[in-house]
Amino acid sequence: MSNEEPYDPDLVKEFFHHDYVDRGMLKWQGYYLSDHTAQLNKQAKKRAEVIQPKTIMTPAEIGQILQSAFANNYAVRLQLYSNASDGHLQPDVVGHIAGYYETQIILKDGQKIDLLNIRNVKSKD
């Protein structure tokens, strides 16, 4: 369009109504590069992975390991009871214990975990 021609909204409407063909999702396929598809495949594989349950520990055993890890500033690896909608176990939670609050432990990253939700704990060496 040159500077001499006035803007015509009807011409624009006519173009989009009769001449322009939207290719739908085809126009976005070029954005899926190999690193995108590799990441999508990695996520799908991770979702399909089933985590094996560890031995259920007693509250006394859990408390003893947590207390020792807190006192000696060791990292711990916690397997929690399932909170997932599919019933599968989630990956272990790993971190240092920053403190306790009522029936929860607080990790240094700020995550709060209910003591009754812990099924297994190990010192992370």
Labels describing this entry:
alpha+beta, 32% helix, 2 domains, 5 strands, 5-stranded antiparallel beta sheet, 125 residues, SH3 type barrels, DNA-directed RNA polymerase beta subunit
Short description:
This is DNA-directed RNA polymerase beta subunit. By secondary structure, this protein is α+β, with helices and mostly antiparallel strands. It has three helices and five strands.
Q: Would you kindly provide a written description of the structure presented here, covering whatever features stand out?
A:
This protein is of the alpha+beta class and 125 residues long. The protein has two domains: 9-48, no CATH class; 59-124, SH3 type barrels (Roll). Helices cover 32% and strands 23% of the residues. The chain has three helices and five strands, in the order αααβββββ. It has a five-stranded antiparallel sheet, with helices on one face. It is elongated. The chain starts with 8 loop residues before the first helix and ends with a strand. The mean pLDDT is 84. This is DNA-directed RNA polymerase beta subunit. It comes from Furfurilactobacillus rossiae DSM 15814.
CATH architecture of the largest domain: Roll
Shape: elongated
Q: What fraction of residues sit in β-strands?
A: 15-25%
CATH topology of the largest domain: SH3 type barrels
Can you count the helices? 3
Q: Low-confidence stretches at least 5 residues in length (pLDDT < 50)?
A: none
Please compute the radius of gyration using only Cα atoms: 28 Å
> How much helix, percentage-wise, in residues?
25-40%
The number of domains? 2
Summarize the biggest pleated sheet. 5 strands, antiparallel
Kindly state the number of beta strands.
Answer: 5
CA-CA gap between termini: 70 Å
**CATH C-level class of the largest domain:** Mainly Beta
Task: Report mean pLDDT, rounded to a whole number.
Answer: 84
Structural class of the helices, strands and pairings? alpha+beta
- Largest beta sheet: strand ordering: 4-3-2-1-5
| Secondary-structure element series | HHHEEEEE
